[in-house]
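One-letter codes give the sequence; backbone shape is given numerically. An example follows:

. . .
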Amino acid sequence: MNANASLKRIQIKGLYGTSKCIDVELENNTLILVGENGSGKTTFLRILFNLLAERWQELSKFSFNSAILTFNDGKDIEIPHSDLSRLAHSGSSSLGRSETRDQLGLIDALEISKFTLNNEQIEALFNQMIDAIKSYYGLSKVVFPQKAYELDEPDEPLKVKNNSIIKKINAQVLYLPTYRRIERELDSVVEGIDSSNLPSPNRSIKPSNDEAYIELVEFGMQDVEDTIKNELDKLKEFQIKNLNELTLRPFGDIVSSAYQREDSQRLADLSEEEIESVLKRVDESIVGKEQRKEWLQAIKDAKSTDEPSDRDKIICHYFLEILDFQKSLQSKEKNISKFCEVCSSYMTDKEFVYDNTSFDFFIRPNFDCAGDSIQLSDLSSGEKQIVSLFSHLYLSGKSHYFVLIDEPELSLSVLWQKQFLVDIHKSDFCVGLVAVTHSPFIYNNELRPYARSMGEFISL
């Protein structure tokens, strides 16, 4: 797991208007919270998600007195429940997106306006409303509640709290709610239809600034296909751009005698198989089949003598330029290669393949007389869960994730349960991991030291 800002402690005080408190400690940004159904672990995780993502409006729906986060710098960030409404208003203009102002009424419209208009514009709007009502009812004076036109700026402490948690985490919060429950609800809406194949726009819920968090609520394979295609397209574009630049460079290198300064040891360290592998990846429009044979022979000749000809030096120089480019390309291919490797490790009858010569992806059956490649939509529910999560981790383009998972064991076999969180935790992208579970197999692995009972952290 990658290092980042460390979350040390989470306190939720006065749950449900009682004296009940949850006081959780984390080690290395990692916690596996174990508890039976009804122990409150899902509520805790949902509150934590809304805290880390600064979803103040959603957080206000939970009943508690205050929440406190402690990071490795020793400083606390305390969020009283009484501040949540003003925090939501001071940090976001998203209030009321699902409702029109016509539906809300005068006072609510003005309340929303104060976060999208400046003070002068709000005052003008307010006066226009007063004039319209006066005219309609024939009134000389209309008295409105003071609340309707208060334009006070948010308190400075509230401004400071907004974005303070997101900045500390410095990672996208990736939240996965209970899998099977969501699948069942979606399937029950459209009887007989596989929900993963429905063209739903709500497979994931993102904020207006999608850097902050993402909530994966459905494992739609179309999203995965789009993500993979986007990754392959970027690799193709990188190759075309750089190879085009390489084709324009040789003449200048010849004129400047750059080929004379090439380090011969770089060639000496390469095997014939490595040289052939590099040449195979070069498009035939740049180096044709016959040219490849000539290049291979020229490189062999240059390696076998202390004084290669200028022609062989030029070919070797250009070859090493291509080699450097391919190393850069391989670095960019690392994520999709790792994605295929991780997904394949869960499969016994199929393999995820990235073909680096054609920039293609496919799923290959692992049995005799195998036929056509397997489609993502043909995968089982558990396989889709695996593929969806790891495609987001490896291919969505973000560098850091703080992962929150509710009951990861659902839809997973016992063997997969033992492997799943370990693969997430050890990835370069993961800077934090909190999971809640009641399955002992989830932490029957190297993550066992991070497993704690929910009961340890509850006080009444």
